[in-house]
């Protein structure tokens, strides 16, 4: 079971990168599986970006499920 549900269009990737740069500049970014998981569970996360080249995949496979539960 893969954590990637669909192929991301280039236009959407560009918009996500722009949002990521803005978040980085404001200091509101969380890095790493543990920090992201905590932010999602606490309701602090508004956008979660997961790399498609994560190895091993099991590290991030839970993130799409908890994001769906929390409506992110």
Q: What's this model, at a glance?
A:
With 72 residues, this protein is mainly α. It has three helices and no strands.
Structure, described:
With 72 residues, this protein is an all-alpha fold. It has a single domain, classed as Ribosomal protein L30/S12 (60s Ribosomal Protein L30, Chain: A), CATH 3.30.1330. Helix 2 runs parallel beside helix 3. The relative contact order is 0.18. The model has no long low-confidence stretch (mean pLDDT 86).
Which helices and strands, and how do they pair?
Layout: H1 10-26, H2 33-41, H3 63-70
Helix pairs in contact: 2-3
What is the residue-mean pLDDT, rounded to a whole number? 86
Percent in strands: under 5%
Strands, count: 0
The helix tally amounts to 3
CATH class bucket: Alpha Beta
Low-confidence stretches: none
> Element order, helices and strands?
HHH
The CATH homology group name: Ribosomal protein L30/S12
Instruction: Please give the alpha-carbon distance between the first and last residues.
Output: 21 Å
Structural class: mainly alpha
Radius of gyration: 12 Å
Shape: globular
Q: Give the helix level as a range of percent.
A: 40-55%
CATH architecture: 2-Layer Sandwich
**CATH fold-level name:** 60s Ribosomal Protein L30, Chain: A
Number of domains: 1
Q: In terms of quaternary structure, what is this? A: single chain
How would you sum up the major sheet?
A: none
């Amino acid at each position: 079971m893969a954590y990637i549900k669909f192929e991301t269009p280039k236009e959407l990737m560009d918009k996500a990168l722009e949002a990521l740069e803005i978040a980085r500049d404001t200091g509101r970014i969380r890095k790493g599986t543990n920090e992201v998981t905590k932010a999602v569970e606490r309701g602090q996360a508004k956008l979660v970006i997961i790399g498609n080249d994560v190895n091993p995949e099991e590290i991030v496979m839970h993130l799409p499920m908890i994001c769906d539960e929390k409506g992110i």
